[in-house]
Write a structure and sequence with these properties.
With 126 residues, the chain is α/β, with parallel strands linked by helices. Helices cover 17% and strands 32% of the residues. It has two domains: 68 residues, 2,3-Dihydroxybiphenyl 1,2-Dioxygenase, domain 1 (Roll), CATH 3.10.180; 58 residues, 2,3-Dihydroxybiphenyl 1,2-Dioxygenase, domain 1 (Roll), CATH 3.10.180.
Length: 126
């Protein structure tokens, strides 16, 4: 049988209570263009540059969906200067929910998105 499932991640879903607010926040966080008139329920997909789509989903078509915050990150963003990214985000008022940890030249910290989800930022520590 021919293998049809690819060994890769196509997209990451972020569940939200407010599609426009989350789309604007993630666009701001990743320095991506944002046009609020293009936000249409149920999903908004950000055009990432590293090959995986980031899709924000408000579940408007799923009457059985119950929103729950994600307390443990299920994906991470990558930084090439983690200390600068940490300083920039905290200066902009982004809530840090887990302080930076460093292990050699690599580290991470967790921030909170507008829906209260924990999002990890990993990268090189200079």
């Amino acid at each position: 049988m021919e293998q049809t499932l690819k060994a890769g991640v196509h997209g990451v879903f972020i569940h939200t209570k407010n599609l426009k607010r989350s789309a604007a926040w993630y666009s701001w966080l990743l320095n991506l263009p944002f046009e609020d008139e293009k936000v249409e329920s149920p999903v908004y997909t950000l055009p990432l540059k590293e090959g995986v789509y980031l899709t924000i989903d408000d579940h408007c078509n799923d009457p059985h969906y119950k929103f729950e915050k994600i307390h443990t990150p299920v994906f991470n963003f990558l930084s090439n200067d983690l200390k600068k990214t940490y300083a920039d985000l905290t200066a902009q008022g982004v809530t840090v929910v887990r302080e930076m940890e460093e292990h050699g030249a690599f580290g991470w910290f967790n921030i909170e998105d507008p829906d209260g989800h924990a999002v990890m930022v990993c990268g090189e520590v200079s």
